[in-house]
Amino acid sequence: MVGNFSDDLDESLDTSEHALRFKWSAVNAGYVQDDFINYFVTDRNRGPSYNIIHFLRIASVRLAIQTFIEQFPNEKVQVVNLGCGFDTIALWILQQYKHVTCFDIDLPNLLQRKAQMMRNAEEIMNLFLGYNDIEEEYIVTENYKMVPIDLNNIEELETLPNKYGLQIELVL
To answer: Which Gene3D superfamilies match (predicted)?
Structure first.
């Protein structure tokens, strides 16, 4: 038996919340700017060594994303975040670049929780183009798409291009 879906979700939530606390700590120490982290974090205590480690991680990921996106200044670009959890990188990307579409992919229940948090933050919702105010489980707009998929299910992953408009040739 591969595992229990409920256990996988609990583990994913724990991992997402854990990573967010570290990131918040680095933001709070001034190592990194993230205008959206406070919408997702409640427990905020971490030590200085974690701040530096998380700064290095965030800075390197952002640099890689910037380097890629800036190679295509007048073209559409798509960024896929597999197992996104409560990560705010898609929000940072949308804040910086208008020609990018972000795909946040994770377990359905985790994305439902993330969507609830995001809907409570006007600053976040203002980033989305073509958002329809209809109460849906997930947020799907012109430039941001929550994709509820169990990454263990390869068949579901293969539906991304048709179901969500993912164009493989545009993806980082």
So the answer is: Vaccinia Virus protein VP39
